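Let us work through a complete example step by step.
Step 1: write down the sequence.
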Amino acid sequence: MKKKKTVSCFVFDLFLNIYECLLKLLLVAGVSSTKQLNPNIIYDNALHGDQAALERAESLWGEIHRTIHSVVSRFEKKGIIPRQDQDAISRVEELQKILMSYHKRMGILTPKTIENIEYLTNGSIMSGQQPVMMGGPGFIGNKLSLLHFLSEQLASKGIKLAPVFLVADYDGLHKELVRTYLPNPLSEKAHIVDIWNALDYPEGTAFHRVNAPEKSWLNETLEEIERVTQEFRTKVKGEKKKILALQEQLIFDLWKLSYAPNEKMRDWFTKIWGYQTNEIHDWGIVYFPFGEKEIRKLIAPFYLPFILEHHKYAKAFQEATERLESLGYKPSLRKRDDHSAPFFFECPHDGIRVDPKLEHREDDNTISVIAECQHCGEVFGFTGAPSPDGLVTHASSLNARVDSASAVVQEILNPQVRISGPGELAYYAQVRYATIAVGFRAPIFVKYKRAFYNAPWIESLGKQLAKRGLKVLHTPEFFKLLSKWVKAKKNEHADEVLNAEIQIAKFIQEVYDELRNNRQKKDISKYLSWQFGSFNPTKFGQEVSWLWFDMARITGLWDYLTTYERMYTPYSSFGVMTFLNTGP
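Step 2: predict the structure and record it as tokens.
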């Protein structure tokens, strides 16, 4: 039933108009001071009612939905986009067998997981991430929580789609996959934990090939993390200190139990998250290991449109890239040309990803895709008339790019919605237009919220700064805003939920900006680091900067993912910033 517009709704509309004007002023200021901006600005402005930004956003990402309720309503009205042919159904049935086996091997196959794997015949809701060591940053837990929440909202309306998390193990080995960060109890500098020196693989090795080192590395690393966390525990007193130590130990136990020397680093990542989503919470998340041998065979034929229509793809990609540049935005991916292949080759000797060159011979209408490994000098590839069967023959040596990966996944998983973060949305601004040009469909893109969270040592430091007259998050004013959101959520007042979320996001941004201007003053840099994950000028966001462990030790392992999930409501706006008042 449509509610009458109340006074609070008019106040909300007025506030929204003011907020939109502020965003426009920020955009203008950004254009004048920076040559190229992140395309996310278009998406975010579209969410907040900027009509010009909405039109641009729709041309880049397709349908733009502001809230979860909007997405659910859309599928209630229009339904899901089904698979087109019997061959597609056969492929899904084969994929279901592969995934059943994989989840059983990982120890995360539950009745709910089996049910969701069966829903793959309908399609999926999808998110994903590269398999970062030790489970990676906290935003991965955020993505998984929104994935579950949205799938449950759709299921409540009879729209049964599989919640799928893509384990993007096609990436090449580089330091950000085997490095993670913890806040430093002594300063604003991050404490780096990595596995780089323990891995005997050349840089650029396809990550799905990388095995974990001996358990001695894990034991030494956990001792290192323990030393860091012990310093933070000294800042907590009494019973809370004991609870914190217990919660930390349970996470250490999960790392130990899920770790298997000489098995895939990718699978360690899957088990860390799979245990939480499927064993602790019974969410039944379906993990999709892109580099699994049998999955690569299913995927291989879908590279064919990129090869046969490489001219069209390169042209469309170029157009999307130039359009972004002309608007003042920075493309995430380098330009593709007529010689760009849709995949890397993996060197048969060392597994390094090698960028091949594609050549189309007009005289006999054949295509060659040839690469030379810069590490060992081996030349490999194929020449001839490409075909689906031919690509399957080479499946074990083909390694996706981010743009081709999104398209081939679309064909095999039929995702209706894709949950992304700022980085993914930025490159989809180029990729979507080009993949559609060669016959692929694209999902609806939505952006998860960015979450900040509390900890006893952050709160203590924040209150000290507040006494010195500095603006921080730990103030009665801010906690009143959080209470306003909680009340609106409880009463299911859609306008008030959105109003509170905008005010919370605005407050967080204002505090951050003001403190950055005072960074040189005592303890401000430490507060920026601990509370905002800003351990250097390019970083912003605790869950983006810090290992998921940082928040999970505060919430406890059994409430970690549900803490994220509670920040979503059917009327929440995608892409806003919010705050989680966690504590032991």
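Step 3: interpret the result. The CA atoms of residues 23 and 29 lie 10 Å apart.
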